[in-house]
Write the structure tokens for this entry.
Amino acid sequence: MPRYKNPRKTWQYSADFKVKAVELSYQDGIQVQQVAVGLDIHPMMLSRWRKEYREGKIKPDGRKRVDVMKNKKLPTAEELRELDQLRRDNARLQKENDLLKKWQRYLADRHQSDLDSSRNTDDN
């Protein structure tokens, strides 16, 4: 395996970002998983932030990192629901596609076996 010379990049999020993510996850009808996917963070990280928020360890500090939230906005509840629906639809379509591929292979194998058996009867 190749040796890595540089240390692994660790993402650091501002307290304001964490607070906004936690507050978004506490909204009615929104699940932690949806918020985590929308913000591109691991759900366990968001759960840990929620615990730290409840314990008072995370508070908004007022400082802003310009490059973190420059052009990004938190997804709305409707956007998260739509994304969740699109993911479910995509999974369903992938399953249908896999089933069609299996059916096509089955038909091709069956056709090939029919050809092989007809050749064997012609040879006799």
Q: What stands out?
A: The chain has a mean pLDDT of 83. Residues 15-75 form one domain.
